[in-house]
Amino acid sequence: MTYKKFLLNLYPQIRKHLGKLILTSVLMISSTLLESAIPEITGQIVDKLFGETRDGSNAILFSIGLFLVILTSSIFAISSTAISSWVANIVVMNLREQMFHTLLRLPKTYLDRNSSGSIMSKIIYDVEQIAGAASTLWLDFIKALVMVIALSIYLFYKSWELSIGLIVILPLIYYAVYISAIRMRRSSKNVQASMGQMTHKLKENINGNMIIKVFNAKNQESDKFFEIIKNIRQQKFKVDITSTLNSNLINILLGIGLSAVVYLASLFFKLTAGEFLSYFTALAMLIKPAKNLVNINKPLQNAMAAGESVFGFLNEKIETEIDKRVVKKIKGEITFKNVSFSYVKNVQTLKNFSFKISPGEKVAIVGPTGSGKTTIIELLTRMYESYEGKILIDGEDIKSINIDTFRSNISLVDQNIYLFNESIKENITFGSDINLNTNELQEVAKISGSDEFINKLSNKYDEIVGEDGSLLSGGQKQRIAIARAVAKKSPILILDEATSALDATTEKFVQQAINEISKTRTLIIIAHRLSTIQNADVIVVMNNGDMIESGTHKELIAKDGFYKNLIKDQFS
């Protein structure tokens, strides 16, 4: 990312705060100009108060004047830093809010391609790097630049002969900055990527801790983590060593200047003690801002590498369909017309699938693993939209409907149950469309069979379930997920292996509840346990992405085909 592109992306984030940034810049410039006046004041003090013609009558004026300059400069600097820090934190907050908003609206294809660790790193780590560019980095640059310019002008004003060497030194400093920028930008970009890999690996090892232990993969995972952090160390070392080499090169160049001034001023130029002190102090003060101009390059390259990551994320295509038709309630008629889909290019997961589901119908989709069952659900819920053919709801193409209002008509119990680290009540009533009173909450829990264990908990519905429901058993998690889907009261209910973690008694109870609620909803069930779907209105049999059979349980058994063989295999 170039400087220009970085600033163009950053500008919308700071546009509302331009007034504050201008004010903080003016304050810092004022502070720096006052600070750069100190060499002249100290020179005057030496000549007037400690020279051959001492005059102590002005001592109080010089003392007060020096104090006021330092005090005012400090107040301006503190005010400038406080304002810029406020702006920086606002920018960080706004960027994170925008990134989280983007995260929730990214298509599933993006999440499939990018690890959760790299996305977390962008929101947690990369944003902080940009904040520095929006606040302290800008002030450091202003302070260093104004100080270098002010002191350089002062030095030429005091003695252009002694200052002529600056014409050589300053271009050399610029060249050092330019060369280091290229190297540091490359290394900083690598550090950003590696931080994402480290976050992802940490998340994997926390979530997969039990598997790692059971399969005795501790050393294997440690080696992988070490390779990641070794790469971070190497890249950071390159950045640090480039930065310190440049910084010390400036030390050497300005050191040559200081040494030359001492030698030339003592032999060839007639300067008073105060004049020499003023000149030498100003030249010595030039070292720090000149070094800072170079050192700014390091965090600036970090910010630019982070900017490429963050702004690239914010520019990802999201699920925005504000111009599409808003629907409130649908009947629940679903039609697939010649739908084909591939997760991987040239490998079809679903092949020319056509099927119609009537409102209020109970449809089961069965078949071996990898036959396309879950793909049908992912397409229906619009997780993926790059398919061939059409999917219709009540005769209307689902792609023409606003995605949020479309999904508000669908409830889902996924085969990979996920609960949030909140209370049972908050998990059941999860979502903007759900608002239950106490009686309704208890009724939903009863339907799902979860009231039995909830009432035994010390905090009942206020019990925190832990990260991903870690404080509940698999069956309890599944029943909470069913309750969540029932609570939504949507016209379409999808159960993807919804009862797989339930014991036989609880499953029978939940099946009765499902049969009851299916009277008023279109129900789609994916199940491996074929005993649970025998009373479905229609059973769709999938194999290798094709629908090979459909009908009632009795009809399919009578056909003596693929479905009957599935039944035999499961109960043999």
Attribute tags:
Rossmann fold, alpha/beta, elongated, 10% strand, 6-stranded mixed β-sheet, 63% helix, 4-stranded antiparallel β-sheet, 572 residues, ABC transporter transmembrane region fold
Fold and architecture overview:
- By secondary structure, the chain is an alpha/beta fold.
- It has two domains: 312 residues, ABC transporter type 1, transmembrane domain (ABC transporter transmembrane region fold); 238 residues, Rossmann fold (3-Layer(aba) Sandwich).
- The protein contains 22 helices and ten strands.
- Helix 20 links the parallel strand 7 and strand 8.
- Helix 6 packs across helix 13.
- 35% of the residues are buried.
Please state the structural category: alpha/beta
- In quaternary terms, these chains amount to single chain
- Low-confidence sequence ranges: none
Strand order of the largest sheet: 6-7-8-3-9-10
User: How does the overall form come out from the CA principal axes?
Assistant: elongated
Overall helicity? 55-70%
Which range does the strand content fall in?
A: 5-15%
Computed over alpha carbons, the radius of gyration is 35 Å
CATH topology of the largest domain: ABC transporter transmembrane region fold
Distance between the termini: 63 Å
User: Superfamily at the CATH H level of the largest domain?
Assistant: ABC transporter type 1, transmembrane domain
- CATH architectural group of the largest domain: Up-down Bundle
